[in-house]
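Quick one - first record:
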Amino acid sequence: MQRHALLETVDRQAAADTLLIFVHGWHNNAKPGNENLKGFTSFLQEMNCKKPPEDPSAKCESSNPYTGVYIGWRGDSQNLLGIEHGIADFLTFWDRQSTSVKVGEKGLKSLLEDLDARVASKKIHRYAVIGHSLGGSVVLHAVKDRLKHDDAIDDNLYVLINPAVAATEYLPFRLLKNKGRIPKLVTLQAKNDYAVRYGFRVATLTAPMGDTSTNKSHDLNACDPRATGCADTLAKRWKEANVKDSCFTMLQGHNWVITTRNDNGKGRETCEESNHLLGWVVWAKDGSVEAHNGILTSAQARALHGLLEINRKRDEAYVAAPPVKRNGE
């Protein structure tokens, strides 16, 4: 019933806009007053606020076309002792982890298929899906089949922030290529996310996908948004070190610079190979993603908007490019 109402609302309001979908993690839900729900509301407002690239603190010039969808699931359905986030509450992790897989494979996957039909009929232009913590598990299990079959040309984007996902679950996608476009799947892993680095390892006896050296393909260096020209300074640093332009993606005005992390014996020998991966696992430094719950910030909103715009422009260029002729053709 809720899904039907959601799709009716999308049909009525989206009007070829971009849908921005957020899936919360453990210890959250869709109740009024939930911190993730409030955070996503502010995040969406920031996404819809177009500002001059040189001044992220300026007032909005005009609106960007994003419509928000908050996906609620029972990320905190049990509390053994009635104590908020008590030690015994840690024991609910395994139940919520298995539930996240089911929600992804049976719930969100089907919803995205409905949205794909609306993209095809041009009722909406595209969508971006963000999953945090166990919400990242929901998203990965919803899109894993389509990631393995990268046949469709689209500019949808899937973002996992500090995902509570095992490295082994990411293994089938680690070296898949993306046909020359920027990735369909971006993982942002905070350097100081100790909940994932230690808690997830203890709970599952396995390494997390975002905090495993073999998976990391990029580094994210961020600047204080109040520091004028900081992103230009970072880019200049790499150019002075004779780093090729293809080795970094600069989100202008957002003070974020994403650089490639090459070879290390992991099957990526050049910047182009790292950038042409279907999935990027980005090691977030300098407070760009602060600890496990440092999500839905205004800086992240501006950076995501920039990444979606790069994605759209590169997809348009890819579709417009003439086919490569083979010998004898």
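second record:
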Amino acid sequence: MSNKSNKWRIDFTNLSDQARRYEIRGQTYVVDAPPPPGFGASVPAITSSSKGNLKNRKDAQQVSTEKDQETLKIKKAWDAALSPGKNIPMNAFMLWMSGNGVQIFSVMITGMLFFQPIKALMGIDSVFERYESSKTKSQLIWPKLVYVILQLLTMALGLYKCSSMGLLPTATSDWLAFMEQKQILEYSAT
């Protein structure tokens, strides 16, 4: 039992033979106390050569932090590029619910499908400017391209709705005013 209690016990009665010298920041200290528990004398002190290693470690950490930030910027740019695609199913459902008749609600929704993508395409630089840096500028081409494609897909959904409502001139009867009239060769009398 006494062995176990001595394991965690420090004897402060005989300190003179345990005097040690420590060098901290160029100053030497003599301490007449035993080292604290867990302290190892074999741990190297920070010297000028290890300070250089510390600087290299900080530089390496800074480089890895910059790479992590670039990776995060590209990831966020992809999130911004894919966000219009998340609205397409909702817009398609709204178009389906509005019906094919020419009514104020269906015309407003169809107009929204044209004006919002046009406004978004005009402001594409403001969407991606927070993700641009000298290193990420070349990597933002693909997210921008996907963003443009998804906005054009939203506009195509609006065109489909206009066609289903009969607002697009897709039939030959829509162009009768521009067709030449047939020349009548004979008249029959009754």
